[in-house]
Every structure is written in C-alpha cells, then in structure tokens.
Design brief:
With about 550 residues, this protein is of the alpha/beta class. It has 17 helices and 31 strands.
C-alpha cells in the first residue's frame, strides 16, 4: 500500500530524508513543506558569500523545488509554513504561499524544522542594523549593508563558528571588525590554551578583540550602532552581526504534545522516532546520543543532520537503521589557520566531575605540518584527551595552517571505531615529504600518551613557565634557536651538553624542560630522570606552542 510522508523543513535533514526516501521507493508520496524561499542551500557557505569569496549567489542553492520535483518526484512547497499538527487525525495545518490555510494529511511525518539564531532581550537588539546570518535573505541583507550602504565597520557578537567566519570575511570585504565574546575565549569547543592560538591570529589580522565582556545594550547613533559592554567599553560600528548561539525550532512539536527535552529539542530514539511512532525528527530540532560520554545532547551540525535524515528514511521504508550518536567533529577556517576538533574538550570532562590524573590524561604536541626539510611547512598543534587505561579517546583538538582537518578526521575515525592510544601508535598513514612526516603527529600523540601512561614521561601545564615560581625551567635548544625565539627566565643548557652540565641543576627541584617542539625535551627528561632527578616534566608543545599561546590578548 502506498504511503504518504510529509516532511516539515528542508535544508540538510529534511532534504536528505526526502531524497533517500525516493531512492528507496518510487511509490511513496512525498511532500516537503519549507516556510522559507529556499528548500536546500549551503548555509555553511553564507559567510563566504557575504565576504565575496563566493561571488555567485546561485552557487549556494543546492536544489530548487523544480529540480527536486523533476529528479525525485517530490512535491516541494516553499513559503508553506506548518502551523499545527493534529496527531490523532494525522494532518498538518499549513499556511500556503498566498496566506491561505489548508490541511495536509500524512501517514508518516518527519519534523526537520531546524533551529534559529538567538536574539536575547538586550535593549536595542531590534535595530535593523543588528542582524543575524542564518538564511540566504540574511546574507543578502548583509551584502547590501556592505555594497549599497557602504558599511565601513562591523561588530560581531559571539566568537563561535559563524562569528569567526564573519570576522574573516568582513575583514576581507574591507571593514574594520570588532569581535565581542562574553566568554574569555573564542571557539568554545576548544580548550582555552588552544583558543589562544586563534586569539593571536585574529589580533595579527587587525580584529579588535573584546573577550570576557558581555553586551549590555545596543543604541543607534547616526548611521551606526553603539554597543555598550559590561566593562563600560563602548564599541561603535556601522552594523552588528549576532552569533551567540541557536535554539531548536521545537514549538510545533511541543504544541503537538510530543515529548521534549529541557532545551526545547524533540526527544527521539536511535531510529529517529519521536514519542509518536508515526512522527520522526532529524537535524537541529532533535536531540541525539552523545557518542563519547553517553546521555542525550543537542548537536546543530550539518553532517549529522544529513545522516539523521538518511536514517529516518531507512526506517520509514521498513529497514532497521540506527543513528549511533554525534561526536561533534568540526573544522573552521580562521584567517590563515584551521581549527578542528572531535569529541569533548577538557572543560567538559571537568564539568562532568572527571579529574586529570585520576580519570583521564591529556597531552599537547607540536609538529611540522609536513617534513621540515620540504619547503612550505608550518606548525601544527594537537591536544589529545584519553582514559587512564588508554582504551578510550575522549577528544582531540588541532590548530594550524595546514593539516589540522586531516589529523582530526583520522582521530575521529579511530574514536568511531573504538580505538584507543595503542591504535594511534599502530596507524600506518600516508607519507611523502610534501604532505606529512614519517612519524605523523597522530602517531606521536599515541607515543606520547603511551609514555604518560607507562610513567616514562610527565608534562607540565601549558602556563607552567610563568606560574611555577620554584621550578627550574630548562631550555635545551641551540643558542641560535633561543635568540630567534627567546623564552624569558629560563636556564640554558644545550641538549648535547646536558650530561656534562647537569651538576648545575638541583635534582630535588621540579625541572620543566623546553625545546622547540618537544622531542629534545623528552630526551633531556629521560637523561635527568635516569640520573636521579625526582620531578622532571616536559613543557607541552615546546617553545613553538609557548609563543603561539602567549600572544598579547586583551
């Protein structure tokens, strides 16, 4: 018997569900309701369209109603908004493009209504100069502000994905950019020390950073906006872009009596079914399993939304398909750097009551993006979080000019397949001088983690040099390296002279050893430990990480 599936919402989850449904069954009647003008567009590409990197607006439109109908036989109705769901009668009340209301019956309903940018009740936030970037019309308005109204400056509120991408793209469009973030760092999925690398990159590119300072009010002033911050600072700009988070569009589901979570998301099972077996939910509006720590969470990411749409379609068509959770893998471009991560960060583990050294361990490494002797290499920083038995990787973060995405994808795959520290050691990864090193940083993360777990190595905190007042900070780099990139307040003994000069050091004091990236520091640490030094630690990531994280910040 032919079934009818009505999908509320397009873009990632809804459109992918519709396409998969059709590929599985030609006879299913599929109706896709989208309240906006566009059924499927590249919302992740919007900042680059605003900044002119993507000049052709049409490139963002992945599918049109006409193409979806012709290719898949799907009845796509844009500017048709679902108003109510009557689950007892299995109908959706819809407001059509011309304003009329009608009822659309269904056998199975898929809710893919997505999320919307937060606009909290800050005084002055309703000014037309205070904008968000979430849809194609939003991008058009911002482009108009730049090209037609000749905006010269912008204030971005929020240092997440969109905020950082907008900082780069508005700067590229010639605007003076201020970035305001209530937290003490940008890119919240990264731990603070990894975010410090991004802070330096933003400052080097002329972005004015206001960290740890929330917005109190917006006030129109002439042709611009004055943004008043909690510290008393006033930031003036021609326009403001809000990027302070999203909330799920769950009102339709809530009013229909579906089970909801405290954050306004729809409760679902692993098959993407809601509390009503005839209703499925996918994408930003639906909660998912936390793949790393277990429990339920919200993960507004395009990749997971696409996969959820596919899983829902499989189950609607009688297959047994399971969505096994989201691990939060992402990558973002921040001027000349890429920031990528998978799994959870250390702040999340701490919030769960986990203690480093008791419940988990971490290591930070620095390595060249490819063989040092091949031209064009750059520094890559990697942080790994892992269990004390080495069997579980909780998360990883990478920041660098090249290779961050590749390494995080490898680590995300190892995590998804249940691998731990030993798996990282055994990985056989592609090597050629222009692309990598014989011992890739992912392998090195496994070696370093294994050394920690076996007691062969101990690492200091990333800020230990300035905080460890009584420790000896020993720099084992060559003289020319220290002159090129000095670290203040260190003892200087070149590694090759350490065995002859270790008598200059107090074996009863804590010794923190520093080199360029960490490998020589490990060798030096092994020398000292085997000669009776009791408390020897390696500075994580070496002088390269020290300088990357100790750039001047506000």
């Amino acid at each position: 018997m032919m079934k009818k599936v009505v999908i509320v919402g397009g873009v990632a989850g809804g459109a992918s569900c519709a396409a998969r449904l059709r590929r599985l069954d030609e006879s299913t009647e599929i109706v896709l309701l989208e309240r906006g003008e566009y059924v499927s567009y590249a919302n992740c590409g919007l900042p680059y369209y605003v900044g002119g990197v993507i000049p052709d607006r049409a490139a963002l439109l992945l599918e049109t109603p006409e193409r979806m109908h012709k290719r898949f036989g799907i009845d796509v109705r844009v500017r048709n908004e679902a108003l109510r769901i009557d689950r007892s009668r299995k109908v959706v009340t819809v407001r059509g493009a011309s304003g009329e209301e009608y009822e659309e019956p269904y056998d199975v309903l898929v809710i893919a209504s997505g999320s919307s940018p937060l606009r909290p009740g800050i005084p002055g936030i309703d000014s037309p100069r205070v904008m968000t970037l979430w849809t194609v019309p939003d991008a058009d308005r911002l482009r108009g502000m730049i090209q037609e109204r000749r905006a010269q400056s912008a204030a971005i509120v929020g240092g997440g994905f969109i905020g950082l991408e907008m900082a780069e793209n508005l700067h590229a469009a010639g605007l003076d950019v201020s970035l305001i973030e209530a937290l003490d760092q940008v890119m919240a999925p990264l731990d603070y020390e990894m975010a410090q690398v991004l802070h330096g990159e933003l400052l080097r590119n002329g972005v004015s950073l206001h960290l740890g300072d929330g917005v109190q009010s917006f006030r129109e002033e002439g042709d611009g906006v004055e943004v008043a911050l909690a510290s008393g600072t006033k930031v003036k700009a021609d326009c403001v872009v809000l990027s302070i988070g999203v909330r799920p569009n769950g009102a339709l589901a809530k009013e229909a009596g579906l089970e909801m979570n405290p954050r306004g998301g729809i409760v679902t099972d692993a098959h993407r079914r809601t509390s009503d077996p005839n209703v499925y939910a996918v994408g930003d509006v639906a909660e998912v399993e936390d793949f790393v720590l277990g429990g339920r969470t919200m993960a507004p990411l395009a990749g997971p939304a696409n996969r959820q749409g596919r899983v829902a379609a499989d189950n609607i068509q009688g297959m047994d398909s399971v969505y096994e959770g989201t691990q939060g893998t992402f990558v973002a471009k921040v001027f000349g750097l890429a920031a990528a991560a998978t799994g959870v960060n250390e702040r999340t583990l701490t919030a769960r009551g986990m203690v480093r050294g008791k419940d988990y361990e971490s290591v930070i490494l620095t390595q060249h993006s490819h063989a040092k002797y091949y031209p064009g290499h750059s520094m890559l920083f990697l942080k790994l979080l892992f269990s004390l038995d080495g069997r579980k990787i909780y998360g990883a973060q990478a920041v660098g000019k090249a290779g961050a995405d590749k390494r995080i994808d490898v680590l995300a795959t190892v995590m998804r397949l249940g691998g731990g520290v030993e798996a990282l050691k055994r990985l056989e990864l592609a090597y050629a001088p222009p692309y990598a090193s014989p011992k890739d940083i992912v392998n090195m993360a496994g070696f370093a983690a294994g050394n920690i777990l076996s007691g062969l190595a101990s690492f200091s905190e990333w800020d230990a040099i300035e905080k460890s007042r009584d420790a000896i900070v020993l720099d084992v780099r060559e003289d020319w390296e220290r002159k090129a990139a000095p670290v203040p307040g260190v003892a200087e003994i070149v590694l090759g002279s350490l065995r002859d000069r270790m008598g200059e050091l107090d074996p009863n004091k804590e010794v923190i050893i520093l080199c360029a990236i960490g490998s020589r520091a490990h060798t030096a640490a092994r020398i000292l430990v085997q000669h009776g030094f009791r408390n020897v630690k390696i500075y994580p990531g070496g002088a390269s990480f020290y300088h990357a994280t100790h750039s001047p910040t506000p």
